[in-house]
Amino acid sequence: MDLNTRKEMFSYAYIEAVSSVAGYSVELKPRAMDNAGIDVTIEVPGEAGGVLFPRIDAQVKCTAAENIRKENCIKFPLPVKNYKTLIYPNPYVPLILVVVLVPSDINDWLKITEEDILMKKCGYWLSLRGQSPTNNTENITVELPRQNLFTPVSLRNIMEKAGRRENL
């Protein structure tokens, strides 16, 4: 399996781990939706934010790039195709971007002992809904605030807002 496929699979495993701790369901999308810019759907199997079964869709990226972590944000070069999907002003299901950072050495991504399972490094999330279109043709650098760690607690907050139909 090539390295990019391993990154993709690892990032999905990260989403699954965070979602399972939060108590949510994750559905990997089929190729047609992946090509349209949606990799996973996360859904609450119950109530959140005053509605039953709220859900979000996510575009998921994974990188080992070291130079993207800045003092207050992660500067990630997002393909314009994905950006155009994520900025859509009125999606039926809220959309977020999740960027998972991993060490450059694949052997450092996961450590397992009898006491611990450790996934390195972490993921960040961002809603780009309503952002301005770009004239770029290949990539646009987006800034994910470092406080936007993708964790079970942050995912629960996202789902509460999604349930109340608030902007994320």
Automatic annotation (TrEMBL):
InterPro entries: DUF4365. Residues 9-162 form the DUF4365 domain. Pfam families: DUF4365. This is DUF4365 domain-containing protein. The lineage of its organism: Bacteria, Bacillati, Cyanobacteriota, Cyanophyceae, Oscillatoriophycideae.
